[in-house]
Write a structure and sequence with these properties.
mainly alpha, two-stranded antiparallel sheet
Length: about 150
């Protein structure tokens, strides 16, 4: 007597019913693979959804846009497509300063205090700051030969 295979029930469209699923994690893993193989321009939301075995609408539900999904896949808290044009819009000689200001924040947010702490001229009221494995401001943290060897 031959056994007949029972076909698996067809997956329904939309979000899975029930409790927690691993869909979001599967989407991110699929996005990492797709972006890695095809690049940003070559990867598609539908291709990522197919690889993750979810409906494409679920990608938009969790991430919104392809750029947001890319940011989640590469695990960066910022969207380069939003800040790079702002930095490059200024004069060419100000690009370096623009990058630093963008990453460290606007005036008054603690950049000077942070830098003074790193070089050891700011007293800390609590905690520790280490630079290249040595306490901030110590000879080891400011030694150029040591920094070169870390590259």
């Amino acid at each position: 007597m031959a056994e007949h295979a029972v076909p698996a029930p067809k997956r329904r469209r939309g979000r899975p019913r029930g409790g927690a699923t691993d869909a979001r994690e599967r989407i991110v893993a699929a996005a990492v693979a797709e972006f890695g193989e095809r690049g940003y321009d070559g990867a598609t939301m539908r291709g990522i959804a197919a690889r993750a075995e979810v409906d494409a609408a679920l990608l938009h539900h969790y991430f919104g846009t392809k750029a947001d999904l890319f940011a989640a896949a590469v695990d960066v808290p910022i969207r380069p497509d939003r800040f790079v044009p702002q930095i490059l819009a200024g004069p060419r000689e100000a690009v370096g300063e623009g990058i630093v200001r963008f990453l460290l924040g606007p005036s008054g947010c603690g950049k000077t205090t942070l830098l003074r702490s790193i070089v050891g001229v700011q007293r800390l009221s609590a905690g520790d700051i280490t630079v290249l494995g040595a306490p901030a401001g110590s000879r080891g943290s400011t030694d150029r030969r040591r920094r070169r060897s870390m590259r």
